[in-house]
Amino acid sequence: MKVNIYTDGSARGNPGNGGYGAVLISGPHRKELSAGYRLTTNNRMELLAVIVAIESMKLPQLDITVYTDSKYVCEAVEKKWVFNWVKTGFKDKKNADLWRRFLVLYPQHKIQFKWIKGHAGHPLNERCDELATTAADGKNLLVDDFYEQEQNKTNLLN
């Protein structure tokens, strides 16, 4: 079964309030996902959009194409950087918690990434942007526990 996933992430202030948006399409079926966080980064939201979308799959071994405007996410997987980061224990790499979460999902499906230019009028990318920014601007924002704990550690050291 083929699934197309479109994703986007947003952060107000980077770090700041953030959100992700994803649109999943398989045949006639379409699903939208989004959530907002009180303190996070754009790259975390870009990656989290991909993770949450893949985690929502109910069947194994799907043929998934992820369309993202994040070169960070796209190139990390397509250029195999993330697999080298595993070998080095993610030394000096940000978002290791999310990358580890992604790497659990990755072998469960056939996943490829396609980069698309953001804010270039692609209707599904624009919809993801709308979902992400609306979530970031929303009320009752979630806590990005790992990021906030890391920020607190950094603040204590400075």
Question: Topology of this structure?
Answer:
Layout: E1 2-12, E2 16-26, E3 29-40, H1 42-55, E4 63-68, H2 71-78, H3 81-87, H4 96-105, E5 110-115, H5 123-136, H6 145-157
Parallel strand pairs: 1-4, 4-5
Antiparallel strand pairs: 1-2, 2-3
Write a brief structural summary:
This protein has 158 residues and is α/β, with parallel strands linked by helices.
Please give a structural write-up.
With 158 residues, the chain is α/β, with parallel strands linked by helices. The chain has one domain: Nucleotidyltransferase, domain 5 (2-Layer Sandwich). The chain contains six helices and five strands. Strands 3-2-1-4-5 form a five-stranded mixed beta sheet. Helix 1 (42-55) packs parallel to helix 4 (96-105). The longest helix has 14 residues, at 42-55.
